[in-house]
Amino acid sequence: FGQPRIPVVSNLTGQLVEAYTPEYWVRHVREVVRFADGIETLHGLGVTTFVEVGPGGVLSALAQGCADDIVTVPVLRADRPERQAVVTALAELHVHGASVDWSSFFAGARKTDLPTYAFQHERYWVDAPETAAAAPAVDPVDAEFWETVEREDLRSLAETLDIGAGDAFSDVLPRLSSWRRQRKEQSTVDGWRYGVTWKAIPDPSPEDPARNGIWLVPVSVAQLGDDWVAACLRALTERGLAPLPVPVEPATGREDLTAQLARAAGDETVAGVLSLLAVDGEAAPQAAAMPVGVTLSVLLVQALGDAGVGAPLWCATRNAVGVNSADEAADPYQSLVWGLGRVAALEHSRRWGGLVDLPGTVDDRVAGRLVAVLGQSAEDQVAIRDHGVFARRLSRLPAARSDRSWSPRGTVLITGGTGALGGHVARWLAGAGAEHLVLTSRRGADAPGATALKDELEELGARVTLTVCDVADREAVAALLAEHPVNAVVHTAGTAEAGMLAETSLGDFAATVAAKAVGAAHLHELLGDQELDAFVLFSSISGVWGGGGQAAYSAANAFLDGLAQHRRARGLTATAIAWGPWGEGGMVADAGDEERLRQRGLTVLRPDRAVSALHGALSGGDGTVTVADVDWERFVVPFTVGRPSALLSDLPEVRDALAEEPAEQTAEPSALKAKLSTLSEGEQQRLLVDTVCAHAAAVLGHSGSAAVEPDLAFRDLGFDSLTAVELRNLLTADTGLTLPATLVFDHPTPEAIARHLWSELTGETGPEEVSVFSELDRLESVISTAASAEETVRSGVRRRLQELLSLVNSAGEQGAESADAQQQLQDATIDDIFDLIDQDLEIS
Q1: 605 φ, ψ (degrees, to nearest 5)
Q2: pLDDT tens digits for range 583-600
Q3: Is the pTM of this model over 0.70?
Q4: First-residue to last-residue Cα distance in the chain
Q5: Domains within the chain, CATH numbers bracketed
Q6: Could you give the 3-state DSSP secondary structure of residue 466?
Q7: In this model, does residue 493 exceed pLDDT 90?
Q8: Cα–Cα distance between 28 and 32 in angstroms, integer?
């Protein structure tokens, strides 16, 4: 403690530290981190060079937004070998004027003159010697072990490694090796844990109260006389909005609803749509497996698009979510609408408002908050209560820790037990001591590999029953439970049929929901209040944050999460795990799928590690947990291309990847702009392409711009979020423009960025073919966010795209054909464009 020897600026106060005391460190742990204030203080003291000593470049990217005219140098980079990263950082410090003791770096080095001839675009510098390697990062598992050794804690060490008094070192060494492997595996799995929380936020201040126009309020005919519906309508009316109820019959179809909405809108300006359909929980005539509120909500999203109503759609629910342990989620069936809405936000981002859950009684305070929420755009998943407003957030969960290790006993039912996921779970349960495993599927013993799986499980010591049971059939489930009383249930059954929401029929939607959601509901209802060791629901990340082309699957999985919360609120056991993609036979069919997912930021889970996460969740008593290996820097930018995600905004990695842009520069017109003014249009564009390629090569570490192809996508060149920020900074310095951090994602090739810069610097737009290329760039960026687009290509698409290509190829013919080709490009769906690029233009 006491005065530090080296001046230190504290992230606790943002000022110089005068002295370290025990109270200081207590405050440092508990209080707000003032990183930006610290950077500003250092900058005010004359510090212009910042070196980040850490495992990535996160702080370097953040610091650039805190002060102007500073140099930030990360010592280590996640995508580069440590030696290369350290030497690069040292060189960057040197060229920015920092004093480097080269005699210490290069043992025996001496100065020499450079050659007098012109460089031949080849590297001249010798490689750094081996002795210049940076010290390896400290592994937390190793650190924990050596801390135990340094404490000379013999008892703890003996218990950890199961060392007896008579054991020789040759006995201890294999145990130590095994323990270390297990701990490293567990540390990896612990890093995959996330949870959904509800964050209290101030009452919103409407950005646009949207009073200039009517608000369409679709409501089920059966709910027209409901007090809650009347209170919602009154809330809008008393606060200056103009609600127009749209009564919808339960058996209405898409075309009829489209016509009804068009008639309701008439010639009026529609300011917004507030759907109260979700609260109708009666069985739907069109799909008995779902409530009326869900089927009508699906049709509403489709019909609004068909009717050309572009106003934002808000879907309201009643007591569908629990914001804390005391706030019971009374109706898990409305969670289906929340899952549907998360996909609608991705697929129809421009005409989506959000999801809002209201209490059973809408009093004056709740009414005021509702109207305020409808008039803002920052939050799109909100719960309103009489004691405040809460926004949905995803956050990291701590490692699962428990004094007990969950183990199976008696009979365990595994739905979908002969499938890939069910098989992995069954092997674990059999090896952990389960006495009897009941594996259900629609084909029972005739399912591929079922007999071999049974033999394998019996060799592990379990008795195995293979049985045919469609869990969507309530009578079949009842008969199964009567024949096989169970101690635990693991519900893995389900299908993942993909399809864009606008093109999904109610029948297809209901079929996907039935296997997962309806099956889980039957198990919940038939088991009643029976005490179980575990009631495990295999959910998916698509239910947590949505997934393009997965509306029905997302809805079904959101129901599973809601059902788990409902059961636990009633004092019943339940664990819902929203999984990322499993490898080795899960929803990932082949290595090509794995690579596509990895490029989008999702790494498939090894089954043994996923099972370890399952065991941890059961041992720790988790209710709902998300388990996924996500590279957030790679995932979040394309995920938020069409719409920001407040849900993910509290994750540090997401904040870093979407760091705010630097303050607008007011510099003099750039030298590049002055040079452009002396060139012809063609020369201008060539210069800009060369400039972008040269800077791209520099941030990637290439020796020259020839290594960067102008028409190759940045993601294929190896760009990540940090290198994207670095390229943006170089181009900002060259052009004097204010460029966004997402520049390489908005304009995905060097040529695309060059065209954007040309337009910004000259204030002109290019010829017609440039605008078409810009549209293709935009569409390619959108395609990268549609994880399942390749699965949804339908018959007839190739014919349409061949016609489109024919029009594009005949661009020399003037008139209506050229205009029609461009219009078809703009109107094409993700499915259309994916097939066009993948098959006709041969871009993978």
Answers
A1: -90, 130
A2: 876 666 544 578 778 877
A3: no
A4: 59
A5: 48-132 (no CATH), 140-190 (no CATH), 199-392 (3.40.50.11460), 411-627 (3.40.50.720), 634-658 (no CATH), 671-840 (1.10.1200.10)
A6: strand
A7: no
A8: 8
